[in-house]
Amino acid sequence: MNVQLEASWKLALEEEFEKPYFSELVSFVKQQYNQNPGAIFPKGNEIFRALNTVPLEKVKVVILGQDPYPTRGHAHGLCFSVEEHVKPFPKSLTNIFKEIETDLGISFPSDGSLVRWAEQGVLLLNAVLTVAEGMPESHAGRGWERFTDAVIRKVSDEREGTVYLLWGSKAQQKAELLDQQKNLILRSVHPSPLSAHRGFFGCKHFSKCNEYLLSRGVDPIRW
Questions:
Q1: β-pairing, 40-41 with 131-132?
Q2: How far apart are CA 206 and CA 97, in angstroms?
Q3: Taking the complete model, does pTM exceed 0.90, yes or no?
Q4: Is 219 a catalytic residue?
Q5: How far apart, in whole angstroms, are the C-alpha atoms of residue 217 and residue 16?
Q6: Rounded CA gap, 119 and 198, in Å?
Q7: Mind listing the pLDDT tens digit for each residue in 133-190?
Q8: By the 8 A CB rule, do 133 and 39 touch?
Q9: Could you say which of 67, 111, 149, 179 is catalytic?
Q10: How far apart are CA 199 and CA 33, in angstroms?
Q11: Contact call for residues 32 and 40 (beta carbons, < 8 A)
């Protein structure tokens, strides 16, 4: 399959592109964009934005989400992140910024785009990379999970000293893909309003992440 992808990822994942499930996934996704123009998110050229922004050798932190925001104008290929114009912020993203403020004393940013994190080596990866408008998880179970699991395994196999922020039970299930001896795995409940008060608030993942990176001589993330 000819996938437009940053060179290091294209090489690392080339075996996945030749597997039958990936061909079926590509056919399904193309069909969805063709049949529902403007109602499948993110835009087609942003599906792999998380990978295209952070080459494999630059990954320092991995944050795992579930699937893109199903609200028009929100999703742009990075988990939890929204387009710069979106106000108010989605509630989970608001809770992330609240925890950063409590943990590190950093005030809320002016916009909800997390591109600035990705450019520092934070891989903002959803388990499912596309969604239909107004229908959360509508593209789950079509093959994206197998592909993104391969991405996670590749980071674990080829990188060490990576920080994985696993928020919520679905993200925590991915821990079995990771080498927990050579990385830092931080777990908490999801930052959703339904659960954030049960352990996301006060988890201090952002300071813990930076302390670990500094201990390895790696530049911390400017959250």
A1: antiparallel
A2: 10
A3: yes
A4: no
A5: 33
A6: 31
A7: 999 999 999 999 999 999 999 999 999 999 999 999 999 999 999 998 999 999 999 9
A8: yes
A9: 67
A10: 38
A11: yes
